[in-house]
Amino acid sequence: MSASWSKEVAAALAPKGRTLVITLGSTLRADDGVGPYVCSGVKFSRPELRLLDAGTTPESVAQTAIDWKPDKIILVDAAHFKGRAGELRVIPLEDINQAMPISTHSFPLSVTFSIVREDTGAELVVVGVQAKSLDYAEGLSPEVEEAGRKLVDYFNSL
User: Fold this and answer.
1) DSSP string for 29-60
2) Coil, strand or helix: which one is 88?
């Protein structure tokens, strides 16, 4: 676990029973691509850990998440919470729409994952990575790429 992560982030990222990690974002919007970046690098070897990349349509993985019946769901996405680029922060689900004012998602995350949480009874946490840029551009800023790499290393260590 990175020493730069708060205790709250460390607790949010810790698996619990059947844990589903869902990454979100668009590789065409600069740092919004941190979710797909993390997904491309993580290779879980334990059957109780599962990874899904929802891209820009999280509603497309909602039923898969419900059917898998996880104990915990961890969402990883770029966010804007006025932190420093690459900073990780736990965002309450009810605040997610404010933390993502320039959303690339076609349906509100709070609505989609409130339904998933209700149908599964799973603990649901949202870990946002402060974006430096959400411009139409490919590639992550160095700060966000470093945060993504730390997330990949952490998840691969489980």
Assistant:
1) BGGGGHHHHHHHH----STTEEEEEEET-THH
2) strand
Mean pLDDT lowest among 2-6, 43-47, 118-122, 143-147: 2-6
Q: How far apart are CA 28 and CA 115, in angstroms?
A: 28
Element (H, E) at 115: helix 109-120
pTM recorded for the entire structure: 0.91
Reading the block at residue 1, the tokens are 């676990």
Q: What is the mean pLDDT of residues 109-136?
A: 90
For the chain, the average pLDDT equals 90
Structure tokens at 118: 């209700």
DSSP single-letter state for residue 93: G
Domain 7-156 has CATH 3.40.50.2030: no
Domain assignments of the chain as residue spans, ordered by start: 7-156
Q: How is residue 109 annotated by DSSP?
A: H
Mean pLDDT of all residues in 11-20: 97
